[in-house]
Amino acid sequence: MSKSQSIVSSLVQRIQSGELAVGVRLPPQRQLAAQLGVDLTTVTRAYNELKRMGLVEGRAGSGSFVRDAAAASDPGFDLSMNVPPQPPGLAERMAQDLGLLLAAGGGTLGYQPSGGTARDRAAGARWLARRLGAVVEERVVVAAGAQSALFALLDLLLQRGETLACAALTYPGVRAIALRLGLRLVGLAQDADGIDPGAFEDLCRKAPPKALYLVPTIASPTTATMPLARRQAIAATARRHGVALVEDDAYGALAESAPPPLAALAPEIAWHVASLSKCATPALRIAYVAAPDPRAAVQLTMGLRAVSLMPSPLLAALATRWIGDGTLDAFTAAIRAENRARQSLAAGALPGADLAAKPDGNHLWLGLPAGWTGAGFAAAAWESGLLVVPADAFDVTGSAPEAVRLSLGGAPDRAGLGRALARLGELLAWPGTPVSAIV
């Protein structure tokens, strides 16, 4: 047995026997190393293993403490992936309905058109019509998730070297697409209501971009929802300057009250991408795209054929079934209700924190106190068993604020989320970035 394993074994026995009670602070690593006559890295390895086992937690600036039994059952929390909380009965309903679809046959195990069958496109048109108004199915394309739809769409609209405008803080997936396609990203100034229409107008007067990418409702990471007047102003500017609008409406179905999408205000220049990942489950890799007209839908379909060949026929059929029988609406309503409860929990757990949030959304935006950087806070959170995303992951302009995005859906339940938020609160109370424990 190595020296670090011996330390782990000894401390585990003392914790399990109750000699080291819940909340007891372990000796500082340097002190224990001196007492045992070992080097510091040996003790560090032992403490890290105890953290991995869920028996010990690190508190920024304070040390390592014995955790309680409840905390030990969930040693870490991923608040980085923006997933919705899983609605009750989701897995069981998926298993049941997928079984029924497989038993019925109907081509769900074969190849299908790249843009979706007529039945699946019609279902998508019905679902989109709630926010866009009447949509003919010939304008609808079914894609294997929003990311593949956005890749094919931006590849269709822009050539290498051309400019794609977006918010200064934008979806990292679009940054990755722009890099892959050789596009020039220009980040526009934004505030609590989203992209500044004046900044977009100024850019268009100087050198109009080929397209503008935006998330107008509960934007990630800032949670901004653009008011109607701002949407109208951006649509008017885009019309005047011939700029295509790429509207990523990932959270639109969650917002019980939001202004009309830009694709409802300017359908002739807007491409509307609506995924089921945030309002149902990421496992349902289906997105619906409303193109400006049927010809444009055909062009996008050709691009998707090269990117992903086709959406999963089985998942597309499941989405069609759930749209038709109300299951999708029920799951979306359950997610919305759970989001509201979790947002309320977060507001109560982080009193006085600089939070931006929307009640129906999966995430919130946390501005950091003086002394913290986004990267420093994310690193300290990681040491405490938490994963959060610093602002620079979304940054286009090189001037990211000191902030992090917290996604509330990843915790398995509210109790787990409460423990994660308590750890965040401890970090926020620490006056500045702690000294790194790396040696």
Automatic annotation (TrEMBL):
GO MF, one annotated term: DNA binding
Residue ranges that the Swiss-Prot or TrEMBL entry lists as coiled coil: none
Record-linked InterPro entries: Aminotransferase_I/II_large (IPR004839), HTH_trans_reg/aminotransferase (IPR051446), PyrdxlP-dep_Trfase (IPR015424), PyrdxlP-dep_Trfase_major (IPR015421), PyrdxlP-dep_Trfase_small (IPR015422), Tscrpt_reg_HTH_GntR (IPR000524), WH-like_DNA-bd_sf (IPR036388), WH_DNA-bd_sf (IPR036390)
Presence of the UniProt keyword Translocase in the record: no
HTH gntR-type domain sequence ranges: 1-69
Keywords on record: DNA-binding, Pyridoxal phosphate, Transcription, Transcription regulation
PROSITE patterns xref list: HTH_GNTR
Entry annotated with the keyword ATP-binding: no
Homology family: In the C-terminal section; belongs to the class-I pyridoxal-phosphate-dependent aminotransferase family.
This protein's name: DNA-binding transcriptional MocR family regulator
The organism of origin for this protein: Inquilinus ginsengisoli
Lineage summary: Bacteria, Pseudomonadati, Pseudomonadota, Alphaproteobacteria, Rhodospirillales
